[in-house]
Amino acid sequence: MPKKEGSAPPTTEIVPRVRALREQIEKIEQESGAKAIAVALRDAETGLELHYHGDRWFHAASTIKVPILLGAFAAINRGDLLPHSRVHVRNRFLSVVENIPFRVESGRDANSAVHNAIGKMMRVDELAYHMITTSSNLATNLLLGVIGSDAVNQTLKELHVDEGIELRRGVEDELAFEKRINNMVTADGLL
């Protein structure tokens, strides 16, 4: 019988592919020299999932920007923000360690457009765009400052996606990093 377009392949085809994928992941882990790796995936068509150390915790780095984006969408949905709400672009943030000020160094940021706008205004949707498409750390901290980490965490909880994601601070907070106060994620949490 011919396979319908868009239909999932039969299990007899899927299982060997998943096994081969898992073997490839194990090979990459062994050959890479990485201290740890984790993979979580879900095939949207078949619902099939693969978890390889999916509950292992990692420093979130830029992956934390996705939960912050969810927090921005939730704030817009609640009416707390509008996509065209204006935010003053500044480069001074308070560390979660004793509220000591810190800055996002322009040389460590992937985007100069937001740094070039310091002292001006940018819209929430522009900051979200730069946070996600160019991984701007400055845009991330500005959005997080407007939304608030408590609101982001509450959004994650309401959406039932809070397990495996811990938002504790803005990005580039080196004092917090030194004290091991970090944003953390698991591969399963990001799935």
In short:
By secondary structure, the chain is an alpha+beta fold. The protein contains 8 helices and 9 strands. Helix 2 packs parallel to helix 5 and helix 2 (65-78) crosses helix 6 (149-158).
Describe this structure in words.
It is built from eight helices and nine strands. It is an alpha+beta fold. The strands form four sheets. A three-stranded antiparallel sheet has the order 3-9-8. The protein has a two-stranded antiparallel sheet with strand order 1-2. It has a two-stranded antiparallel ribbon with strand order 4-7. The radius of gyration is 20 Å and the shape is globular. The protein starts with 10 loop residues before the first helix and ends with a helix.
Largest beta-sheet characterization: 3 strands, antiparallel
CATH superfamily of the largest domain: DD-peptidase/beta-lactamase superfamily
Question: Strand arrangement, largest sheet?
Answer: 3-9-8
Strand residue percentage? 5-15%
Structural domains: how many = 2
Q: Compute the CA-based radius of gyration.
A: 20 Å
CATH architecture of the largest domain: 3-Layer(aba) Sandwich
Number of helices, where a helix is a run of at least 4 consecutive DSSP H or I residues: 8
How much helical structure, as a percent, in the residues? 40-55%
Query: N-to-C SSE series?
Result: HEEEHEEEHEHHHEHEH
User: What is the CATH C level class of the largest domain, in words?
Assistant: Alpha Beta
Compute the separation of the termini in Å.
Answer: 34 Å
Shape from CA axes? globular
Q: Label the structural class.
A: alpha+beta
